[in-house]
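Notes from the 1:1 (GR / supervisor)

We went over the backlog. Supervisor wanted to see one worked example end to end before approving the batch request, so GR pasted a single chain during the call. The sequence is below; no edits were made to it. Supervisor asked that the structure be written out right there so they could see what the output format looks like.
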Amino acid sequence: MTDQLVRPTIPIAYVADIVARCRATPRAIAGALAAGDIPARALASRRMRVSIVQLERFHAALGRAGDDEVFGFFARPVPRGSFATLLALLVDCDDVRAMLDAAARFYRLFDRHAYFAFELDRRRATLHLVTRDAEQARSIFFVHTMLLAPWRTAAWLVDRPIPLDEVVLPARFRPFRRETRYLFGREPTFAAGAPRIAFAAELASLAVVRRRSDADAHARASLRAIMLAPPAPTLHDELRGVLAAAQPFADLGVADAARRLGRSRASLARELARHGSTFQDIKDELRRDRAIALLAETSLDFAEIAERLGYSAASAFQRAFRQWTGVAPGALRSVTASPRAARAPRSSSRAAATTRAAGRGPSRRSRRARRRGSPPPSRGRR
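Structure output shown during the call:
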């Protein structure tokens, strides 16, 4: 099994930020959470994660319910299909600089606030995100996606990577350092000022090569493309790949992993430490991500999942999962099972009730009647 099949998971904070901001009804929000197999009580857990499949399902269901692609973060709703329309317009731009300007003007149809400031000098092109209110500024979902979307869209339009020289976020987002490094392909810096990304100035002149016929397909896959498309492999990604390929799953010591990566044990530890990580951190993240995917996307029981993750017992896996995410693995399964139960035919429910009643034997009134020697009461008699 390769790491491509063990996709990194996404912080529950993304979902919590959307829920807090969107204009949808509580019923629509509950339905979207159920569609994504996301337990509502998990929104309060800072450690909980969701898979890209869960996020896609939640995102699609809530988008349909509220008809707003940005979930209330702009002054006016952005109707479904707007991003596809934007892509079809952007293919007519000359280059990256023109495309970024056109995208900013397009979204001002829905919010007069100027969210982007683009600076270009001889050495560097910098895209600043200027948030409109405190809630936007605090939202990791909003800040990440508002920087990721134009950057990844530009790379798609020119059909080549646009490596970043700099990613700067406010210090409040330091807990999301690893996610930022994965999504943007480089180590972030945390500093005061507006969130921003920067790339080489000459890349702003890259010509747009995509055609309008490409736009619809890219729009349909855009969420996955944004969340799961690092521009280049990093040591973190390479180590995940080595661990994912091990048999049993992730059952590899640091010395063996370092050797497979062409490094010494000490150099691997130093490189990971430079990025604020350890070998055990990455192994735990990989197991956590695979566990979430197996819980959300399969019907395997806990014992089978434990075995696939290399645990000797289901109880050991359950303890580890709670440490990773702050919730028990059963929390995901209860959400997954509930829509199926709700969709069960009414006749099946009645049959099940009849079976349960039959299994309990005679009612208390019937037993009393038999002791007195009289016939049991008729159920049809009131």
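Supervisor's comment: The first helix runs from residue 12 to 21.
Batch request approved.
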